[in-house]
Amino acid sequence: MEWDWNFVWQIMPTLIEGVKITILATLLGSVLAAVVGLGIALGRRSPNRILARGIGFVAEFIRGTPLLVQLYFIFYVLPDIGILLSPLVAGVIGLGLHYGTYTAEVYRAGIDNVPRGQWEAAKACNLSARQTWTRVILPQAIPPMIPALANYFIAMFKETPLLSAITVLELMNQAKSVANTYYRYIEPITLVGAFFLAISLVAVVLLRWLEHRYGRVER
Amino acid sequence: MTEPIIKIDAISKSFGNFQVLDGLSMQVMPREKLALIGPSGSGKTTILRILMTLERIDAGHIAIEGEQLYHMPKNGGLVAADERHLTKMRQKIGMVFQLFNLFPHMSVIDNVTLAPMLTKGVARAAAEKRAMELLDMVGMSEKAKAMPAQLSGGQKQRVAIARALALQPKIMLFDEVTSALDPELVEEVLNVLWKLCAETDMTMLLVTHEMGFAHDFADRVLFFDRGKIVEEGKPDEMFSNPKQERTQTFLRKIIAAGHRV
């Protein structure tokens, strides 16, 4: 089997379409994971015990089952109860929910790291619970956890090929379809690896910068 | 006859099996400067924390200006206070902490303006003008734009005092405000307290190990041990001629430890 550069250039436009979808799914999934994670972290601290327990149970359940199974469920099972989602939307929801249960732990640790005195000072300043969260606790908790969050987003990026299982035309799926059409696997699959490696490397450089920028807290 | 501004009636508080306060009662008159002294674990800090609603009481009643702190009237009886009632009551009280607890992500002036703007709806310009006056009073106006991490402990504590004053409380609670400071920084904070004493008519409760300062500053000194007031009186009597043996022992120990009287 020989490497064919002509074939590489021929399939490149198709693969780049796939890269776009992969990046789009990662970005949307990251945003959703960041929001879901915060929701879970706050929910588990709710004074309402039933709510806190319920959210905790759901989070453990999602974290304890494979992402692939969840994607199948969202895309193929939910239509049975009338929820019909496009592949990309289903994929983003799957990624966001699954990684949201991981980012929730990052938020939890970040929130726990804010000293008790900050809560007490907020109370002595007579701030409401909402003001305490938005003005005092989260602004201190979030910057130091940005590198840890970014780490999960990079991990999520590398799991996006799973979306090919629910027909999302992301990079892996595009590569598979060209490969199946021309019966040549070496170029498409090698290129998939190369694309992921290149983007991951850029992301890691970005992550180092984030760690430098936000990783330290001054008190 | 004037009514007490704080009336504590038979309050109890435990942390797990440890009973910190056991049926404690005391009263504080308006404008009174009170020093609370005693060994650690004696409950003096807990009283301040209870007044600031940082800890709840297990039993008893507290009235601030004749109004219940932890209870509110309902259908002719008293029920447990809700968050709204507590918020209203907290407006009367300010607190300065041992470890300053400045908001580290905000500049000095933002630390001072935050609460008035959020809780009293004061406009930014007015809040900043008032904050500058307060920072000026504590000698920190030049550092208004600085971040807390750039300040010394004494400077942080002076900003924390300005932050508490910004809400114009009637009662100020000072919880060992100089205990975390290097010795050479204690003076600048105590000077601010003197100034407050001279220039405002706030009621002040001071938990302290600075016996010399307590002696000069307080109208009345309360000696606590094991959740009870063992002895109280004018500073002169308390420090020169304590009647209770436990007070004598405590004062002897603390002088031996190098605290001046």
Could you please describe the fold and organization of this structure?
The complex is a heterodimer of chains A (219) and B (261). Chain A is elongated. Chain A contains 8 helices and no strands. Chain A is mainly α and 219 residues long. Chain B is of the alpha/beta class and 261 residues long. Chain B has a domain at 104-168. Helix content of chain B is 38%, strand content 26%. Chain B is built from 9 helices and 12 strands. In chain B, the strands form 3 sheets. In chain B, strands 8-9-10-3-11-12 form a 6-stranded mixed β-sheet, with helices on both faces. Chain B has a 4-stranded antiparallel β-sheet with strand order 2-1-4-5, covered by helices on one side. In chain B, strands 6-7 form a two-stranded antiparallel sheet. In chain B, helix 3 (108-120) crosses helix 4 and helix 3 (108-120) runs parallel beside helix 5. The longest helix of chain B has 17 residues, at 183-199. At the A-B interface, helix 5 and helix 6 of A face helix 2, strand 8 and helix 3 of B.
Largest interface: A-B, 20 and 27 residues
| Biggest sheet overview of chain A | none
CATH class of chain A: Mainly Alpha
The general outline of chain B is globular
Total tally of structural domains of chain A: 1
Q: Helix content range of the residues of chain B, please?
A: 25-40%
Enumerate how many helices of chain B there are, as a single number.
9
The CATH homologous superfamily of chain A is named: MetI-like
In the CATH hierarchy, the third-tier topology of chain A is known as MetI-like fold
Specify the number of helices of chain A.
8
Spatial gap, N to C terminus of chain B: 34 Å
SSE-based structural type of chain B: alpha/beta
Poorly predicted runs of 5 or more residues of chain A: none
Approximate shape of chain A: elongated
Strand arrangement within the widest β-sheet of chain B reads 8-9-10-3-11-12
- Overall residue-averaged pLDDT value of chain B: 92
| Helix and strand sequence of chain B | EEEHEEEEHEHHHEHEHEEHH
Mean pLDDT of chain A: 93
Helix content of chain A: over 70%
CATH architectural name of chain A:
Orthogonal Bundle
The largest pleated sheet of chain B is described as: 6 strands, mixed
Family (chain B): Belongs to the ABC transporter superfamily.
Domain ABC transporter (chain B): 6-251
GO molecular function (chain B): ABC-type amino acid transporter activity; ATP binding; ATP hydrolysis activity
InterPro entries (chain B): AAA+_ATPase, ABC_ATPase_HisP-typ, ABC_transporter-like_ATP-bd, ABC_transporter-like_CS, Ectoine_EhuA, MetN_ABC_transporter-like, P-loop_NTPase
